[in-house]
Amino acid sequence: MTVNSEIAVLDACVLYPAPLRDLLLSLAAEDLYRARWTEMIQNEWITAVLSHRQDLQAAALHRTATLMNRAIENSLVLHYEHLIDSLVLPDPEDRHVLAAAITCRANAIVTFNKKDFGQQANITIVHPDDFCVSLFARSEADAQHAVKTLRQRLKNPPKTARELITTYEQQGLPKLATLLQDKLNLL
User: pLDDT digit string (tens) for 80-97?
Assistant: First the structure.
């Protein structure tokens, strides 16, 4: 297992879809990077899910957030709020994410909304597809193990390796899907 010192703040948009959230947390649990977020980011993705999925209960999603905080050591960034008002971004609503990244000394912010963050000194704004592919490039065996373990955990419904790859493609991760297609028998 490779222990990586890269710290990445996960924006709410990459925590919103359960399959992507599960993938990013599985890669963090394999110590490929250190995942970080805030309560504000957690509340943002939960609110978005509830606005689109009336069949889900807020309590269940808050339980998921609590389990995430427990599963990933030191994941919750605290004491970042004082920076928010001093930051200028193309989308002012994302200042809290950048403030968290500065506070925890993150190397990256993982988001689908790269344009909302502009150029940042010392913090890479990265699409989740590029981020996941870079983790595979850094430690292929550990990343494969994370995806294989994730797939084996899926019970409701279970997914074949091919179905999981299709899910990632549908989640906006075409590069990762192509990479995994070449490793189908290992997943």
Answer: 999 999 999 999 999 999
